[in-house]
């Protein structure tokens, strides 16, 4: 399904959402850890070339050195969060609420419970009814990679909405999923579980969205989902199969001009995506797709993130099925 064409919103921030609208966003904050936690982790960091246990609470020593953020860095990130001004933000690579609160003061949070410092979660504006969902653990492949984070907005109401924050395996961005390298094998396994989650929500007739870092340009992930022998080849056509009908998905970035987060970046396309179910896509506010980009001075002088937010405004559909 193709969304209506819309205008890219750069800095300064776009107008505030109108009545009944919900601004959804996703943002990978690149190893966001509070200064206190980072100090403790630095004393037991993992040297280059050493592979720690998958769920160990440790960080690479080069991350400890390069991404030690000071007050000015967190203030800059918080300034971009204010410019984003989203109601709900799917977050990736965040070490839980203490770190997230430094960027999103005044918000509420839901995060996965993986011991590793890179967790998925959500920041929710105060006043919005929500319930933290369960960790979607199958996506973690036995906690060897990141879990999915579930969120239920307006639980029990006719406009109930289900969200999933994901950060999929890197290293297989433009390769077929039957490639023998381990990154592609892991991603292919994740795709199977992601499709199960999508199909489960779709079969229940619920409006939903999957938001996050897919580590894959879904807009270019075109072609057959599977080979003639049934081997999984591509992510997007596998999940966007319209079976059940609510799984006829829309990508918020479709038809949008790609803009890097900063002038010194050279990425070719979006890998952070907001994917909407068929019903939810009908409520997209035309012209509301947004990409908040960094000022060159901040990108050079501050330790921000190698990702920046994408966002979209929707009007949650009323009357879709809900189940607690």
Provide a descriptive summary of the structure in words.
The chain has 324 residues and is α+β, with helices and mostly antiparallel strands. It has one domain (23-28, 71-314): 4-Layer Sandwich (Deoxyribonuclease I, Chain A). Helix content is 21%, strand content 21%. The chain has helices at 35-42, 61-66, 71-84, 97-100, 182-203, 236-239, 278-281, 296-301, and strands spanning 22-32, 88-94, 108-111, 119-124, 130-136, 148-153, 161-167, 208-213, 250-251, 272-276, 290-291, 310-314. Strands 3-4-2-1-12-11 form a six-stranded mixed beta sheet. A six-stranded mixed beta sheet has the order 5-6-7-8-10-9. It starts with 21 loop residues before the first strand and ends in a 10-residue tail after the last strand.
Question: Keywords, please?
Answer:
single chain; alpha+beta; Deoxyribonuclease I, Chain A; 6-stranded mixed beta sheet; 12 strands; disordered N terminus
The DSSP helix count reads 8
The number of E-state strands comes to: 12
Assign an overall shape.
globular
Number of domains: 1
Residues in helix, %: 10-25%
- Main CATH class: Alpha Beta
CATH fold label: Deoxyribonuclease I, Chain A
Helix/strand/pairing category: alpha+beta
Radius of gyration: 19 Å
CATH superfamily: Endonuclease/exonuclease/phosphatase
